[in-house]
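User: Quick sanity check before I run a bigger batch. Here is a single chain. Can you write out its predicted 3D structure?
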Amino acid sequence: MDVDEILAQLAAEGKEAPAWLGSLLESVKNQSEDPETLKTETEAAQLLKMSPGTLAVWRCCRTYPLKYVRVGSKIRYRLADLREFIALRTVEPKKARRNG
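Assistant: Done. Predicted structure follows.
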């Protein structure tokens, strides 16, 4: 059963999925997708938890090296590039210093 089927089943039963469950299911869905999948600007923004406008500013100003694909007048993002962007910006906490 995939994410859409689970959400559809809940809706058919008259139940609404809690927000956290929807986010979790989307996360699982994104992990199982083909890395070559092209995401729309809105989908990419949702994955990064920001607005599509922010992505547009980043492209225009070259703020971050987030790769994108131009298809005619449309902008798309490869899922693999989005995952790489997140991985490169993941910060590991440093060990606490001991005084003394």
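Residues 1-32 form one domain.

User: Great, the batch can go ahead then.
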